[in-house]
Write a structure and sequence with these properties.
homodimer, 198 residues, mainly alpha, Tetracycline Repressor, domain 2, DNA-binding, DNA binding (chains A, B), TetR/AcrR family transcriptional regulator (chains A, B), DNA-binding (chains A, B), Homeodomain-like_sf (chains A, B), Tet_transcr_reg_TetR-rel_C_sf (chains A, B)
Chain lengths: 198, 198
DNA sequence: TTAATATTGTAACGTTCGGTACAAAAATAG
DNA sequence: CTATTTTTGTACCGAACGTTACAATATTAA
């Protein structure tokens, strides 16, 4: 027994997906509600009836980006293969996002963290949660590497994960800002070397 | 013999300095020309007579940020003290900018790189130039550390500098986005340890 | 002093902003 | 069927957007 009244003729998640890419490309302040209507195909009536405000739609877009992103990232870190292979693949995945993505270039979560975390505590919460989860997954794989001896010289998994986390985010920022592939390769090499030794 | 006509009653660089902070706080899209007039004390006539457009003022603001920033940064990297002390001080300087700055929090150059580098080739150029100069200064100090033996195990200065560069920018982004001091300390430790050994 | 010139503050320009009002449309419940 | 409910597209709201126009102002050159 479904609800009374005219049914919606769109999928909530599909709209959030599209809006996510619009915000990702143009930023929060840089895109208008009209842009969102154009890209999603919704009229303002539907858009405001469903989401209430631009800010609320943005939060849902960032939340969705976080959810799909953390799944992809942990899947890579927990996949088969050596620790070294998985970490290199992780960086490579980020590099594809920055240089070859059919989605917008760069990382929406970074943009949201810098543009909106200070203005919107909920956005801040999503970003912080994502980083905590990602860091935890990194600590796990570092522990594995230390246990098996793949990572030489005892250092704490927390320190290793913190380094890899920061280097990863710097990598993404530098890639997006400069589109410099040579630098990207050097960062990948420098990061891998710092963990696995010369 | 000065020019004919009514003289300006403001200093060009002072205005750029103020505008820099306004853009830094609110972002390019997030601040209006009225915001810039309010903060600088200039009327729209003067502002447009002097700079021509919001975009042009933004470029000058980013350029000025770059100039003052690269001086500060290279001064730290080239100061007296051990390589380790200088690198730790460099990270600490960034941390102060992110947590305790009386200026706006975070780094305008990162914001500019992410928000405007894709839209404005001149901004892209400033950001890329800054990063190249900073990386060169980092390579120099890494060479010194390798030469004196302060940095153990031979790795290339380029790889070391690339790692430090990316970790530094990730550090800044994570600090600004999450305001998490514990994480910041862990990143500092992880980064220093990865260069100087356990 | 007067002519020329540059800067100033203010008042607008047309456009776009985020958001709302509301009637037409499309479904279910009875 | 009719009544009710929900979504839809469109027209519109006042405010703010980046930018321009321009007369008043303040200076120097002659």
């Amino acid at each position: 027994m479904s609800k009374r009244g005219r049914p919606r003729d769109f999928e909530h998640t599909s709209i959030v997906d599209i809006a996510m890419k619009t915000f990702w490309t143009k930023g929060y302040e840089g895109c208008s509600t009209q842009d969102l209507c154009n890209d999603t195909g919704l009229g303002k009536g539907s858009l405001y009836n469903t989401f209430g405000s631009k800010q609320e739609l943005y939060k849902q877009a960032v939340e969705r980006y976080h959810e799909t992103g953390i799944k992809e990232q942990t899947a890579i870190l927990e996949s088969t293969g050596s620790v070294k292979e998985r970490l290199r693949y992780f960086l490579n995945w980020g590099m594809v996002e920055d240089f070859e993505s059919t989605s917008p270039k760069g990382c929406l979560l970074i943009n949201a963290g810098l543009e909106r975390a200070n203005e919107d505590p909920i956005v801040e919460g999503i970003v912080s949660r994502h980083i905590e989860l990602l860091k935890a997954a990194m600590e796990k794989i570092m522990e594995e590497g230390l246990r098996t001896g793949e990572i030489p010289r005892q250092r704490s998994a927390v320190d290793l994960a913190s380094l890899f986390l920061s280097s990863y985010y710097g990598f993404r920022v530098l890639n997006t800002s400069t589109q410099n592939r040579t630098l990207a390769e050097q960062i990948m090499n420098g990061t891998m070397e710092s963990i696995f030794g010369a």
